[in-house]
Amino acid sequence: MIYKRSSQLFTEAQKVIPGGVNSPVRAFKAVGGEPVFVERAEGAYLYDEDGNKLIDYINSWGPLILGHAHKPVLDAIINKAKKGTSFGTPTEIETKIAELAVKMVPNIDKIRMVNSGTEACMSAVRLARGFTGKEKIIKFAGCYHGHSDSFLIQAGSGAVTFGTPNSPGVTQGTAKDTLLARYNDLENVKELVEANKDEIACIIIEPVAGNMGCIPPAEGFLEGLREICDETGILLVFDEVMTGFRLAPGGVQERAGVNADIICFGKVIGGGLPVGAFAARNEIMDYLAPIGPVYQAGTLSGNPLAMAAGLAMLTELDSKREIFKSIDKKTEYLHKGMEKVLLKNNIDFTINREGSMISVHFGKEPVRDFDSAARSANLGIFNKFFHGMLENGIYIAPSAYETWFISDALSYEDLDKTIEATDKVTQEF
Ligand SMILES: *Cc1c(COP(=O)(O)O)cnc(C)c1O
Which numbered atom of ligand 1 lies nearest the CA of 143? Predict the structure, then answer.
């Protein structure tokens, strides 16, 4: 693989952009080496600045479930752009996409558009606090809800009562309102709820976790959270930024048959443009300004180009529901294929999968929460795997803690190439 122009571009970028990137994980810091600069992409493939063609398993970190430059989405953006790019007034297309989202997702009456998943989660928590009149939230170690202050909290060792910030700049004052729980551990959640009686506004969770590898909820876990919330008046917030419109037309609520009170969206809902959203039943959503007291706003929220891309994407997914089965099958095929070659090559591994989310962990123990994900991260081996795959034209996320995002643009031939590369690379371990 040629790595010349990307390298030069990275050198230039670092002079004027912190770390050369506008979002940290892109910098390849965890795996070493220098990032690939992409020139264009189409379908399942990225073409970088050195002319390398890569099979893409990141798909812009989730949004491009139908692959790059998907024609109906592109056409919608281009046609919309010709009419002007932003007005700061209501437009019809905002209602259209809201109607479609409300139709596809269970248990929501209204939806508000924002510009990122971060904004969606941040706003959802403000709404939960305003609605309940309570201040604390419970989040799970290893779950990512964007980079707003309340969420940048990690577990200390031992029993955690108060969160400690894991980024300088997050104040202790903010951190103390975020309680940390262990994923897939209902008892732990019950203890936190008991110890902070009548102070908790919401429990926010990735209902299938995707930011510590892919970790599906254990049997009964989501149902148990629903019960706790029903008994205590705590709101259950599903952060479906990654899972929404990916794991089913109605996301994990539909797939698992568990209803949340507020649902956050991002990624797929924007079709590759910057969009986030949060949604709930009327009684909760009507707490938002301008009809309710909870303030939330955005100069570019509901931007016509972003709405056109999102509407085209959701329309594709809604009208061709076989897509969901198709990507799930492709992901299962990849899972089985990689499993076979990793076993053959005597590698310690665990593969987690739910629908079209999949992650490979280089350790034997089951990965069911952040601690087990961390123990299986095995950075030395992962880094070798990552660079080996890249060298063979396979672009996976440059971090042992990321899910692979399967797109329906991947062909079985692409999957076979990926399985062959896995075989070739891990033979040398
Ligand atoms: C990506 C992601 C976010 C943050 O979305 P941004 O658009 O990057 O701000 C929040 N929650 C989950 C579950 C995500 O995967």
Answer: 13
